[in-house]
Structure formats: structure tokens, C-alpha cells
Amino acid sequence: MEDILQKIWELGTIYGIKVLAALAILIFGRWIAKGISKLVERLMERSKIDPTIIRFVGNLAYIALLAFVIIAALGQLGIQTASFIAVIGAAGLAIGLALQGSLANFAAGFLMIVFKPLTVGDFIEGAGVAGTVEEISIFTTTLKTPDNKTVIIPNGKLTDDNIINWTVKGTRRVDLVMGIGYDDDIDKAKQIMADVISKEKRVLKSPAPQIAVVELADSSVNFVVRPWVKAANYWDVYFALTENIKKAFDAQGISIPFPQRDVHMYEHKE
């Protein structure tokens, strides 16, 4: 009986110490993991990174560190952790393969939020869609088209192609093509268009507007008319100048051959 009690005491002493050590690793490891995750979040906040990314990275760092702490505690108890690590690795690989599309969208969203090629409120063209950015999330970007449709684009698809941001520079060039007949006076037509542009208060003084002959077409002499405006005024000025130049030409007896061909239509998808 005494031998049995002695063995129990010895086993209790040995394994009791191991259990206490494992508990200590869990308690202090969890505390350290929280501290490191908070430190990572503070460093990212100083870099003015999006709060969504900060929270996600902080949680990811905490979970990774906590998994390491749990494995260390199990090892302290004498449990073979190699099999656990192998299972975790295999599970991670399987999940990664199953969610590779989602992970690609996540990576693209992460980079978009960090490097900010576009922000909420920008008018962009990308993935075959043009619209105003309403939301940038981890996996998708939401656009509102000019005809008030909501389009949700996977971030991976958006970043796989060129992104045209019409807003980021703050200004845009209005590209018009106006034609006159071969019998009309070129200088007179240029002066009329310059006068119309000078009366449009939304046209910027710098850069200076450009009016130049661009093409001698089959039935018309075509001009490019290129004033600069604030991005928000683009379409209002585009329509106003088109109408006012036509009226001014009519008043001065300058004909506009029909049909007109706008060689820059591909730039105006808003």
C-alpha cells in the first residue's frame, strides 16, 4: 500500500508540475498574444490604415499566437504535437484550396484598402462597369451607376484589369468634336467657340481650353474643343457647351454637317 501511495505521489508531483507549467504557458501566453495583437493594431493605426483591416489583422495575429501557445502547452504535458501541426497544416491547405477565389478577393481588397487606388465617392471605370464607389469591403466593391443601379464587383476581378479613376485628380478635360462645312470660315468658327467657352463660368482658366482643327472629313472640317472643368461639373458642362455652340453657330450662319462623329465617345461612359 505504501508503495502504491509513493508511486501516486511521485506521479502527482511530476505531472502536477507539468500541468501547472502548461497552465502557466496558457495564461501568460494568452496575455502576451493579446498584448502583441494590440501592439500590431496601434502600429497600423499610426499608419492610418482602414479600421476594417486593423481589426482583421489584429484578430488574425491573436489567433495565430494563441494556436502556438496551445501547442506549446500540450507539448509541456508530454503530448506529441507533431500530429496536431500536421492536421492543422492539412486543414489549412484544404481550406485554402476550397476558398482560393475568396482568398484572392480578400487579398485584392486588402491591397485596395491599404494603397487606396480608389475611395468612396470616386467615379471609376473597372471590370467593365462605370459608377460611383459606394463601399469598399474586404471581398467586394459596390458601385452605383449613373442610372442608379447597384453593382457589386469581386475585388479580384476589379484589380485584375485597369482601373480608371475620373475623380482622383479633381479635374477633367471635356472632349468635344464640332464640325463645320467646307464653305464656312475656320477662324470665325474658332472665335465663336472661344466666346461660348469664355461665357461658361464652370470652365477652368488653367489649363487653358484648346480649340484646333483635328480632321478634314468627307463632308466637314472637324474641331476638337477641350476645356477643363472640375470633375463634378463634367457632364453639365459637356451638355451646355454642345447646345450653346450649336446655337451660336446657327446665329452666325455656320452650318454643322450631319451626322456628327464624336471620336472621343469611348471616354464618356458615365
Please give a structural write-up.
A five-stranded antiparallel β-sheet has the order 4-3-2-1-5. A three-stranded antiparallel β-sheet has the order 7-9-8, covered by helices on one side. A two-stranded antiparallel ribbon has the order 6-10. Helix 6 packs across helix 7 (about 235-250). The protein is rod-shaped. It is α+β, with helices and mostly antiparallel strands and about 270 residues long. The chain contains seven helices and ten strands. The chain is about 50% helix and about 20% strand. It folds into three domains: about 1-100, Helix Hairpins (Orthogonal Bundle); about 120-165, SH3 type barrels; about 170-265, Alpha-Beta Plaits (2-Layer Sandwich).
Observed structural traits:
alpha+beta; Helix Hairpins; SH3 type barrels; Alpha-Beta Plaits; five-stranded antiparallel beta sheet; three-stranded antiparallel beta sheet; 52% helix; 18% strand; disordered C terminus
Offer a quick outline of the entry.
Helices cover 52% and strands 18% of the residues. It contains seven helices and ten strands. It is rod-shaped.
Detail the topology: elements first, then pairings:
Layout: H1 2-46, H2 51-76, H3 82-98, H4 100-115, E1 123-126, E2 129-136, E3 140-144, E4 150-154, H5 155-159, E5 164-165, E6 171-173, E7 176-180, H6 186-199, E8 210-216, E9 221-226, E10 228-230, H7 234-251
Antiparallel strand pairs: 1-2, 1-5, 2-3, 3-4, 6-10, 7-9, 8-9
- Give the averaged pLDDT, no decimals: 82
Q: How many helices in DSSP terms? A: 7
Give the C-level CATH assignment of the largest domain. Mainly Alpha
Number of strands: 10
Give the name of the CATH architecture of the largest domain.
Orthogonal Bundle
**Largest sheet entry:** 5 strands, antiparallel
Terminal CA distance: 91 Å
Look at the helices and sheets and give the structural class.
alpha+beta
Strand order of the largest sheet: 4-3-2-1-5
- Secondary-structure element pattern, one letter each: HHHHEEEEHEEEHEEEH
| Unreliable residue runs | 260-270
CATH topology annotation of the largest domain: Helix Hairpins
What is the domain total for the residues? Answer: 3
Shape: rod-shaped
Level of helix content?
40-55%
Portion in beta strands: 15-25%
Q: What is the radius of gyration?
A: 33 Å
